[in-house]
């Protein structure tokens, strides 16, 4: 059953729930919009100078975070007294993905993960170099907020923990697609990662149209959905974890396909 259908002047590039009655969207026209499911009213609550490519919301602090092609990472406070969200400019870099991990904000900047404390945004409390070789495509926090997973443009996934000692003991990097008999790897971009809210499993979506289920603890592949006709551009579990939504669409993968010969 459709709760709300709303038009937008620009293409919708990302969205998230603010609560059970409202949602937020990031658009190519630079606008951040709030949608009220009850009144069916949409309101522009923020704006970038270029397309907004990702957005997320913190239940703990009431803030929402946006990143755009204008190289701005913005934190918006919806609890301002006048009702209009105030904003704080956090970063002036190419941000490719953001994720909320309890009271921390994770931002993917090139091959680095910048970690911010949402209670004090003067600068990153930690800057971690990614263990993957190529650029980060997405970052997603665990359901228990103990760490996060990184998806890269070369088809690798890295598991990292906020506690450095845990990262050293339990962190890992693995490739979603094994190399062929010829010793070649097709560098298949990981577009999104979704963690099950009630278990230790997660699913990856890639440019070849595969959605693959993995177990975080055993670090093993559990299941692979039937290949979609186009790239898996986005995916997410329902609040209960009973449903998995998968978005499959063209992501311009042919423009940047790479083939690497791995020497023996």
Describe the overall structure.
- The chain has 264 residues and is mainly β.
- It folds into two domains: 1-129, Methylamine Dehydrogenase, Chain H (7 Propeller), CATH 2.130.10.10; 131-264, YVTN repeat-like/Quinoprotein amine dehydrogenase (Methylamine Dehydrogenase, Chain H).
- 3% of the residues lie in helices and 50% in strands.
- It is built from one helix and 24 strands.
- The strands form seven sheets. A four-stranded antiparallel β-sheet has the order 1-2-3-4, with no helix packed on it. Strands 5-6-7-8 form a four-stranded antiparallel β-sheet, with no helix packed on it.
- A hairpin with a 5-residue loop joins strand 18 (190-195) and strand 19.
- 33% of the residues are buried.
- Mean pLDDT is 85; it is low at 255-264.
Question: What are the defining features of this structure?
Answer:
264 residues; mainly beta; Methylamine Dehydrogenase, Chain H; four-stranded antiparallel sheet
Secondary structure: elements and pairs:
Blueprint: E1 12-17, E2 22-27, E3 31-36, E4 42-47, E5 52-57, E6 63-68, E7 72-77, E8 86-92, E9 95-101, E10 104-109, E11 112-117, E12 126-129, E13 136-141, E14 147-152, E15 156-161, H1 164-170, E16 172-175, E17 184-186, E18 190-195, E19 201-206, E20 211-215, E21 220-224, E22 232-237, E23 244-248, E24 259-261
Antiparallel strand pairs: 1-2, 2-3, 3-4, 5-6, 6-7, 7-8, 9-10, 10-11, 11-12, 13-14, 14-15, 15-16, 17-24, 18-19, 19-20, 20-21, 22-23
């Amino acid at each position: 059953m459709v709760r709300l259908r709303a038009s937008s002047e620009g293409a919708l590039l990302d969205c998230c729930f603010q609560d059970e009655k409202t949602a937020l969207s990031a658009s190519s026209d630079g606008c951040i919009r709030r949608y009220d499911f009850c009144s069916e009213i949409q309101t522009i609550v923020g704006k970038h100078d270029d397309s907004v490519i990702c957005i997320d919301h913190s239940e703990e602090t009431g803030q929402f975070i946006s990143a755009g092609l204008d190289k701005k990472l913005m934190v918006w406070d919806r609890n301002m007294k006048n009702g209009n969200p105030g904003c704080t400019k956090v970063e002036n870099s190419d941000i490719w993905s953001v994720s909320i991990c309890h009271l921390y904000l994770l931002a993917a900047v090139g091959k680095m993960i910048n970690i911010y404390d949402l209670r004090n945004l003067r600068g990153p409390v930690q800057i971690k170099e990614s263990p993957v070789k190529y650029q980060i495509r997405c970052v997603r926090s665990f359901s228990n907020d103990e760490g996060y997973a990184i998806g890269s443009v070369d088809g690798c996934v890295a598991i990292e923990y906020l506690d450095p000692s845990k990262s050293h003991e339990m962190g890992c990097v693995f490739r979603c697609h094994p190399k062929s008999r010829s010793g070649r790897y097709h560098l298949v971009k990981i577009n999104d990662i979704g963690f099950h809210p009630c278990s230790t499993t997660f699913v990856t979506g890639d440019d070849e149209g595969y959605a693959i289920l993995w177990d975080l603890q055993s670090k093993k592949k559990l299941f692979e959905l039937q290949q979609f006709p186009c790239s898996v551009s986005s995916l997410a579990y329902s609040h209960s974890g009973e449903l998995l939504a998968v978005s499959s669409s063209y992501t311009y993968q042919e423009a940047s396909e790479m083939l690497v010969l791995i020497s023996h």
